[in-house]
Design goal:
Blueprint (H helix, E strand, L loop, with lengths): L2 H22 L3 H12 L4 E6 L5 H5 L6 E7 L2 H13 L6 E5 L12 E6 L7 H7 E11 L2 E6 L51 E7 L2 E7 L12 E7 L3
Parallel strand pairs: 1-2, 1-4, 2-3, 4-5
Antiparallel strand pairs: 5-6, 7-8, 8-9
Length: 238
Amino acid sequence: MTTEFRLAVVLALAVLPAALWGQTAKEPAQQAAEILDASGVAGGLIVHLGCSDGKVTAALRAADSFQVLGLDRDAAKVAQAREFIKSRGMYGNVAADQFTGSKLPYVDNLINLVVVEDLNGIALDEVLRVLVPNGVAYVRQGSAWQKTIKPRPKNIDEWTHYLHGSDGNAVAHDDVVGPPKHLQWLGSPRWSRHHDRMASMSALVSAGGRIFYIMDEGSRISIQVPPDWQLIARDAFN
Protein backbone atom coordinates (compact mmCIF):
# COMPACT_ATOMS: atom_id res chain seq x y z
CA MET A 1 0.00 0.00 0.00
CA THR A 2 1.54 3.30 -1.07
CA THR A 3 1.81 6.30 1.23
CA GLU A 4 -0.57 8.23 -1.03
CA PHE A 5 -3.20 5.43 -0.82
CA ARG A 6 -2.95 5.25 2.99
CA LEU A 7 -3.46 9.01 3.17
CA ALA A 8 -6.50 8.80 0.91
CA VAL A 9 -8.05 6.08 3.11
CA VAL A 10 -7.46 8.10 6.28
CA LEU A 11 -9.00 11.21 4.72
CA ALA A 12 -12.01 9.22 3.50
CA LEU A 13 -12.61 7.74 6.96
CA ALA A 14 -12.34 11.18 8.51
CA VAL A 15 -14.74 12.77 6.04
CA LEU A 16 -17.34 9.97 6.09
CA PRO A 17 -18.49 10.41 9.73
CA ALA A 18 -18.67 14.17 9.20
CA ALA A 19 -20.79 13.66 6.11
CA LEU A 20 -23.07 11.25 7.91
CA TRP A 21 -23.38 13.66 10.85
CA GLY A 22 -24.33 16.45 8.47
CA GLN A 23 -27.11 14.25 7.11
CA THR A 24 -28.53 13.22 10.49
CA ALA A 25 -27.84 16.09 12.92
CA LYS A 26 -30.73 18.51 13.30
CA GLU A 27 -30.99 21.92 14.84
CA PRO A 28 -32.97 22.09 18.11
CA ALA A 29 -35.69 24.19 16.46
CA GLN A 30 -36.12 21.56 13.73
CA GLN A 31 -36.22 18.73 16.27
CA ALA A 32 -38.83 20.56 18.33
CA ALA A 33 -40.94 21.37 15.26
CA GLU A 34 -40.94 17.72 14.18
CA ILE A 35 -41.90 16.58 17.69
CA LEU A 36 -44.79 19.04 17.94
CA ASP A 37 -45.99 18.22 14.43
CA ALA A 38 -45.91 14.46 15.09
CA SER A 39 -47.63 14.80 18.47
CA GLY A 40 -50.42 17.03 17.20
CA VAL A 41 -50.36 19.02 20.46
CA ALA A 42 -51.06 22.70 19.81
CA GLY A 43 -50.76 24.11 23.33
CA GLY A 44 -50.65 23.44 27.05
CA LEU A 45 -48.02 21.98 29.37
CA ILE A 46 -45.05 20.08 27.92
CA VAL A 47 -42.62 18.02 29.98
CA HIS A 48 -39.26 17.23 28.36
CA LEU A 49 -37.84 14.22 30.18
CA GLY A 50 -34.09 14.11 29.70
CA CYS A 51 -33.73 17.79 28.82
CA SER A 52 -29.89 17.75 28.73
CA ASP A 53 -28.57 21.20 27.72
CA GLY A 54 -32.08 22.67 27.37
CA LYS A 55 -31.83 23.69 23.72
CA VAL A 56 -34.62 21.41 22.48
CA THR A 57 -36.56 22.15 25.68
CA ALA A 58 -36.54 25.87 24.90
CA ALA A 59 -37.41 25.25 21.25
CA LEU A 60 -40.49 23.26 22.29
CA ARG A 61 -42.07 26.55 23.36
CA ALA A 62 -42.95 27.30 19.77
CA ALA A 63 -45.84 29.61 20.69
CA ASP A 64 -47.29 31.52 23.64
CA SER A 65 -49.80 28.69 24.13
CA PHE A 66 -47.06 26.43 25.55
CA GLN A 67 -45.41 26.14 28.97
CA VAL A 68 -42.40 23.82 28.95
CA LEU A 69 -40.81 22.00 31.88
CA GLY A 70 -37.47 20.24 31.41
CA LEU A 71 -36.43 17.40 33.75
CA ASP A 72 -33.10 15.62 34.03
CA ARG A 73 -31.43 13.38 36.62
CA ASP A 74 -28.04 15.07 36.08
CA ALA A 75 -27.69 18.24 38.17
CA ALA A 76 -24.93 19.57 35.92
CA LYS A 77 -27.15 19.25 32.84
CA VAL A 78 -30.00 20.99 34.66
CA ALA A 79 -27.68 23.88 35.52
CA GLN A 80 -26.57 24.07 31.89
CA ALA A 81 -30.18 24.02 30.69
CA ARG A 82 -31.14 26.81 33.07
CA GLU A 83 -28.29 29.00 31.87
CA PHE A 84 -29.27 28.45 28.25
CA ILE A 85 -32.95 29.17 28.91
CA LYS A 86 -32.06 32.33 30.84
CA SER A 87 -29.76 33.46 28.04
CA ARG A 88 -32.76 33.35 25.72
CA GLY A 89 -34.92 35.37 28.13
CA MET A 90 -37.41 32.50 28.37
CA TYR A 91 -37.08 31.40 31.98
CA GLY A 92 -40.50 31.17 33.60
CA ASN A 93 -42.35 30.10 30.47
CA VAL A 94 -39.62 27.46 30.13
CA ALA A 95 -38.00 25.93 33.21
CA ALA A 96 -35.65 23.08 34.12
CA ASP A 97 -35.37 21.01 37.27
CA GLN A 98 -33.65 17.89 38.58
CA PHE A 99 -35.70 14.85 39.47
CA THR A 100 -34.95 11.55 41.18
CA GLY A 101 -36.81 8.35 41.81
CA SER A 102 -39.39 6.65 39.64
CA LYS A 103 -42.31 9.07 40.03
CA LEU A 104 -42.83 12.23 38.03
CA PRO A 105 -43.46 15.31 40.24
CA TYR A 106 -46.94 16.08 38.89
CA VAL A 107 -50.53 15.33 39.87
CA ASP A 108 -52.68 13.06 37.71
CA ASN A 109 -54.09 14.37 34.43
CA LEU A 110 -52.01 17.55 34.21
CA ILE A 111 -49.59 17.44 31.25
CA ASN A 112 -50.57 17.69 27.57
CA LEU A 113 -47.34 16.31 26.07
CA VAL A 114 -44.46 14.36 27.61
CA VAL A 115 -41.39 14.16 25.37
CA VAL A 116 -39.13 11.36 26.61
CA GLU A 117 -35.51 11.19 25.47
CA ASP A 118 -34.89 8.22 27.78
CA LEU A 119 -37.34 6.63 30.22
CA ASN A 120 -34.35 5.95 32.52
CA GLY A 121 -36.26 4.05 35.21
CA ILE A 122 -39.66 5.73 34.62
CA ALA A 123 -42.45 3.33 33.65
CA LEU A 124 -44.64 4.28 30.68
CA ASP A 125 -47.68 3.91 32.96
CA GLU A 126 -46.21 6.68 35.13
CA VAL A 127 -45.90 8.91 32.08
CA LEU A 128 -49.51 8.16 31.15
CA ARG A 129 -50.62 8.95 34.72
CA VAL A 130 -49.58 12.59 34.48
CA LEU A 131 -51.03 13.07 30.98
CA VAL A 132 -54.42 14.68 30.48
CA PRO A 133 -56.99 12.50 28.71
CA ASN A 134 -56.05 12.53 25.01
CA GLY A 135 -52.58 13.75 26.02
CA VAL A 136 -49.54 12.42 24.17
CA ALA A 137 -46.43 10.54 25.30
CA TYR A 138 -43.70 10.83 22.67
CA VAL A 139 -40.90 8.41 23.56
CA ARG A 140 -37.55 8.04 21.79
CA GLN A 141 -36.64 4.42 21.08
CA GLY A 142 -33.20 4.34 19.50
CA SER A 143 -33.41 6.42 16.33
CA ALA A 144 -37.22 6.21 16.20
CA TRP A 145 -40.06 7.67 18.26
CA GLN A 146 -43.16 6.00 19.66
CA LYS A 147 -46.36 8.02 20.06
CA THR A 148 -48.90 6.95 22.69
CA ILE A 149 -52.19 8.77 23.24
CA LYS A 150 -53.82 8.47 26.65
CA PRO A 151 -57.46 7.43 26.15
CA ARG A 152 -60.22 9.55 27.62
CA PRO A 153 -62.00 7.61 30.41
CA LYS A 154 -65.57 6.71 29.53
CA ASN A 155 -66.76 7.68 33.01
CA ILE A 156 -65.89 11.39 32.54
CA ASP A 157 -68.99 13.17 31.25
CA GLU A 158 -69.29 16.52 29.48
CA TRP A 159 -71.53 19.45 30.51
CA THR A 160 -72.22 21.15 27.21
CA HIS A 161 -75.28 23.26 28.17
CA TYR A 162 -76.35 25.44 31.06
CA LEU A 163 -78.34 22.49 32.46
CA HIS A 164 -75.99 19.69 31.39
CA GLY A 165 -77.52 18.79 28.03
CA SER A 166 -80.02 20.01 25.48
CA ASP A 167 -82.81 18.19 27.34
CA GLY A 168 -82.46 20.53 30.35
CA ASN A 169 -82.01 17.65 32.82
CA ALA A 170 -79.19 18.86 35.10
CA VAL A 171 -77.80 15.41 35.92
CA ALA A 172 -74.36 14.36 34.66
CA HIS A 173 -73.38 10.79 33.86
CA ASP A 174 -70.02 11.14 35.56
CA ASP A 175 -68.39 8.71 38.01
CA VAL A 176 -65.24 10.80 38.58
CA VAL A 177 -66.75 13.96 40.07
CA GLY A 178 -66.61 14.13 43.86
CA PRO A 179 -65.25 16.13 46.81
CA PRO A 180 -62.03 17.96 45.84
CA LYS A 181 -58.79 16.27 46.92
CA HIS A 182 -56.26 18.81 45.65
CA LEU A 183 -55.90 22.05 43.71
CA GLN A 184 -55.43 21.23 40.02
CA TRP A 185 -54.76 24.75 38.73
CA LEU A 186 -55.33 28.39 39.67
CA GLY A 187 -56.66 30.82 37.09
CA SER A 188 -57.24 34.54 36.94
CA PRO A 189 -58.68 36.84 38.10
CA ARG A 190 -57.88 36.11 41.74
CA TRP A 191 -60.80 38.30 42.89
CA SER A 192 -64.27 38.75 41.44
CA ARG A 193 -66.17 42.04 41.43
CA HIS A 194 -69.06 42.68 43.88
CA HIS A 195 -71.19 39.93 45.41
CA ASP A 196 -74.24 42.25 45.73
CA ARG A 197 -74.58 42.41 41.96
CA MET A 198 -74.52 39.84 39.18
CA ALA A 199 -71.84 37.18 39.71
CA SER A 200 -68.58 37.88 37.89
CA MET A 201 -68.53 34.37 36.40
CA SER A 202 -71.56 32.71 34.87
CA ALA A 203 -72.69 30.03 32.45
CA LEU A 204 -69.75 27.64 32.76
CA VAL A 205 -69.85 24.60 30.47
CA SER A 206 -67.34 21.88 29.59
CA ALA A 207 -66.64 19.95 26.39
CA GLY A 208 -63.69 18.31 24.68
CA GLY A 209 -61.34 18.73 27.63
CA ARG A 210 -62.03 22.47 27.78
CA ILE A 211 -64.11 24.69 30.02
CA PHE A 212 -65.90 27.77 28.69
CA TYR A 213 -67.40 30.54 30.78
CA ILE A 214 -68.47 34.18 30.68
CA MET A 215 -66.40 36.43 32.95
CA ASP A 216 -66.72 40.07 33.92
CA GLU A 217 -63.11 41.24 33.79
CA GLY A 218 -63.98 44.86 34.60
CA SER A 219 -62.12 46.81 37.29
CA ARG A 220 -62.33 45.49 40.86
CA ILE A 221 -61.89 49.03 42.25
CA SER A 222 -65.60 49.85 42.09
CA ILE A 223 -68.77 48.11 40.95
CA GLN A 224 -69.76 51.44 39.40
CA VAL A 225 -67.04 51.00 36.77
CA PRO A 226 -68.57 49.56 33.56
CA PRO A 227 -68.34 45.77 33.14
CA ASP A 228 -66.04 44.04 30.66
CA TRP A 229 -67.67 40.74 29.75
CA GLN A 230 -65.41 38.17 28.10
CA LEU A 231 -65.87 34.62 26.83
CA ILE A 232 -63.03 32.57 28.33
CA ALA A 233 -61.83 29.13 27.20
CA ARG A 234 -59.32 27.11 29.25
CA ASP A 235 -57.86 23.64 29.32
CA ALA A 236 -60.02 21.90 31.91
CA PHE A 237 -57.06 19.97 33.34
CA ASN A 238 -54.36 22.65 33.58
